């Protein structure tokens, strides 16, 4: 047993030297065990990890949206909408037993001073009687309040207001006016909520397979399993390079009694494609499943 272990160790040292000389990733083929009987080397394999970044953009219609053009001369969205897009992808090598589809990050950004993705400001409009105001009248008063805020802001900036507001006081006053105007404007223009999530997949590779379906992305419902029937397919695409050759080591026939088998990985370009569009940066990784088996003289064997 010790002799076998010594043989394997020397063979691995030889492989390491080959790697250093040729910039090639290779390993001895076959199962080998240590003195305790534990498997320490087996046939080489590759597992790829892909991390997808999905962006969800949600538009919420403001309660006064249909009066925005009439009172503010702007055209906001009149129908709520939600859309999903894969915005980034990262590729790397992974452990074979890693979890599949792990949502490990979520970030939400709301374009609102309130920081809420559903609530709108309860702004008080000018009441001259106890009569309940119609939505259109309330929208008109909100628009008048916006114009009033803008006039007051300009008066502060130009000094026409006469309050003698300077320095930090002026900055705080303008910030308060901006916030109040934003609250009114949201009643007409609505809100935009952007949520970003990341999803991690592991893909064990198979021999001579260069495309793997990871999932699907539906613009209306978001990320779906690869088995779904709707949405664009998200796939891992592998482009192998020219066959790797040894520059300093002579290969021999498999029938040579002094030969040892090594698996040479193919240095491949890996990319994530959504539909027909490549997303994120490509990665150059050693892929054993796209490589080849070579035979070299065992340097540990006695001549």
Structural overview:
The protein is of the alpha+beta class. The chain folds into two domains: 131 residues, no CATH class; 141 residues, no CATH class. It has four helices and twelve strands, in the order H-E-E-E-E-H-E-E-H-H-E-E-E-E-E-E. The strands form three sheets. Strands 1, 8, 9, 10, 11 and 12 form a six-stranded antiparallel beta sheet that branches. A four-stranded antiparallel beta sheet has the order 5-4-7-6, with no helix packed on it. Strands 2-3 form a two-stranded antiparallel ribbon. Helix 3 runs antiparallel to helix 4. The chain is elongated. The N terminus is likely disordered.
The number of distinct β-strands equals: 12
Structural class: alpha+beta
* Low-confidence regions: 1-14, 16-21
Number of helices: 4
Main beta sheet = 6 strands, antiparallel
Detail the topology: elements first, then pairings.
Elements: H1 2-22, E1 26-28, E2 32-33, E3 39-41, E4 47-60, H2 68-72, E5 81-93, E6 102-110, H3 135-158, H4 167-189, E7 191-204, E8 211-218, E9 222-225, E10 232-239, E11 259-274, E12 277-297
Antiparallel strand pairs: 1-11, 2-3, 4-5, 4-7, 6-7, 8-9, 8-10, 10-11, 11-12
Give the gist of this structure:
The chain is α+β, with helices and mostly antiparallel strands and 303 residues long.
Task: Tag the structure with descriptive keywords.
alpha+beta, four-stranded antiparallel beta sheet, six-stranded antiparallel beta sheet, disordered N terminus, 303 residues, 12 strands, 4 helices, 2 domains
């Amino acid at each position: 047993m010790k002799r076998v272990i010594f043989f394997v160790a020397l063979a691995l040292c030889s492989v390491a030297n080959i790697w250093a000389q040729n910039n090639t990733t290779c390993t001895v083929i076959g199962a080998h065990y240590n003195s305790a009987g534990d498997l320490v080397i087996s046939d080489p394999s590759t597992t790829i990890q892909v991390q997808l970044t999905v962006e969800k953009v949600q538009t919420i219609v403001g309660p006064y949206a249909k009066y925005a053009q009439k009172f503010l001369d702007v055209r906001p969205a009149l129908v709520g909408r939600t859309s999903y897009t894969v915005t980034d992808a990262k590729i790397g090598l992974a452990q074979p037993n890693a979890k599949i589809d792990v949502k490990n990050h979520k970030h939400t950004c709301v374009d609102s001073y309130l920081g809420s993705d559903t609530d709108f400001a309860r702004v008080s409009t000018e009441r001259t009687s106890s009569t309940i105001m119609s939505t259109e009248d309330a929208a008109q008063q909100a628009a008048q309040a916006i114009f009033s805020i803008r006039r007051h802001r300009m008066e502060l900036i130009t000094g026409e207001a006469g309050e003698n507001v300077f320095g930090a006081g002026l900055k705080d006053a303008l910030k308060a006016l901006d916030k109040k105007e934003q609250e009114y404007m949201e009643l007409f223009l609505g809100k935009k909520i952007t949520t970003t999530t990341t999803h991690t997949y592991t893909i064990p590779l198979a021999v001579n397979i260069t495309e793997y379906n990871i999932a699907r992305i539906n613009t209306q419902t978001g990320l779906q399993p690869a088995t779904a029937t709707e949405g664009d397919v998200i796939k891992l695409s592998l482009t192998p390079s020219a066959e790797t050759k040894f520059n300093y080591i002579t290969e021999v026939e498999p029938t040579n009694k002094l030969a040892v088998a090594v698996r040479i990985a193919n240095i491949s370009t890996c990319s994530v494609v959504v539909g027909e569009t490549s997303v994120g940066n490509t990665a150059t990784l050693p892929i054993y499943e796209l490589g080849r088996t070579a035979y070299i003289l065992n340097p540990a064997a006695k001549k």
